[in-house]
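Protein in question kept in full:
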Amino acid sequence: MEKLKFIDLFAGIGGIRLGFEDENTECVFSSEWDKFAQKTYEENFGEKPAGDITKIEAKDIPQHDILMAGFPCQPFSKIGKREGFKNATQGTLFFDVIRILDYHKPKAFLLENVSGILTIDNGKTIQTIMGALDEAGYNASYQVLNAADFGLPQNRRRVYFVGFLKELEVNFKYPVGDPYNRVPISSVLESNMDGYEISEHLQKSYLFKKDDGKPQIVDKNSDIQVNTLVATYHKIQRITGTFVRDGKTGLRLLSENECKALQGFPKDFKIPVSRTQMYRQFGNSVAVPVVKLIADEMKQNLRGAQNYSWSKQLTLHL
């Protein structure tokens, strides 16, 4: 079986690649501008991603079957009467996704972003995105999926965009999670962890300065899914943060292994950067099991479309 070739844009530490890559796929190009994320990516995949995608010509990117990108969310310009959707993305990093799709015409793409992108500018941003993908020649769709419905102990709602070249006539269906069979945070918590403590002074003066149920505190008895792990987790925010009842001061930050479990990364995934960078990287990454399920469906559709195409050609020749 010929391997499916893919590229990994805005790659971060490789979460989308982890969910997509298998023995029948090959990553032929990756791009990530952040030097710390590059270091983690190289440590785990044996290759250093190329830098700023805006400075890389489409012709210098290898031919590929699938484009994958966790593209950053930015506001787009207005769509003028004489302006196409592609032009409306100028000045945003999504434009680089479109220009590469336009040039290489891969069979399919998988994109990921925060669910808030659906409501930015009263829905005009998502209109621009879908319009640009349509103009590029793709049947595209999107779906918001919560990692908690797919076996991870974290509420993490993200929007996934999947598209196939229109000529392939693919009928893609997103995976369906199970909200009634969720994994509790207690199942992944470690005990007696040192080095992650939150000082008693910070607890009294900031975290528990109000009796409002904030922040979210979990322990071995917690039968819930925690708040979304964010890139600013290291700043110990009382409104959005989740902290563990454990350690020398009675309260600590999530450990490295706990962060991996929240995102579905394997325990042997290497973290060669500081703890601050580690939290940023996991907070910016993706829920690997969700990506894997989407990827499996995409691969099945692509192989089905390929078989159909061969069968069609054979029939025409006969």
The two ends are 25 Å apart (CA to CA).
